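Re: the 194-residue chain
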Amino acid sequence: MGERICMVGECERPARTRGWCQMHYKRWWKTGDPFGTLERTIPPQTRFWSHVAKSETCWTWTAARNSNGYGNFSPMTGSWSLAHRYSWELEHGAIPRGLWVLHRCDNPPCVRPAHLFLGDHQSNVADMISKRRHMHGERHWKATLTDDQVSDIRSRLTGQRGEIVALAQEYNVSRMAIQHIRDGQRRAEPTQFQ
C-alpha cells in the first residue's frame, strides 16, 4: 500500500493531517479554507460582525476570548486584536497612542461601540473605583478585618504602651497588622484621580 496523497485536486504532496498535505492544512488552519482563498474573499469587517450576538443591551463577542473574557479577533492572518478595540476602530478610527478602550457596561466580551469610550490608565482605575470593582479594604480576598473594625482600631489608638498587643489579641490579628493600621499603610481610602 502506497503513501496517501493530498486530497486537494492536482496536489501530489503526501497527506499529513485531515487528508491534506502540510501546505493545504496550514492554509485551512489559518483561513478555514485549504486553498487559502477564504481570508481574501471575506472582508475582516464581515468576519468580525459574524462573531457578534446583538441584543438590546450588549453586543457579545461569541468567538475566542482571552482569560479575562475579552474577545480576540484576527483582522488578517498573523495579527491579533482585542475585539472591543477593533470594534472601536471600525466605528471611530485609529486609537491614539497611550489610550485604552474602556467599557461603560463593564462587560468584557461586549463590542457595542456605544458602550465603549477612550481613556488612559488613570481614567480606567478611576472608573473601576467609582463602580466599586476594585478589591480594596474588606472586599480584598485576604482581608480579615472589616472596614468598620479598622475604623474602630484607628479611633482607639492613642499611643499608650501595650495597646497594640491588646488590640491584636482582641481582633485576633498580628501586632504588625495593628501597626500597619496605625501607620496608615493599609486600608487607605482608594485614590480618586482627577
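Strands lie at 52-54, 59-61, 72-73, 81-82, 100-103, 116-119.
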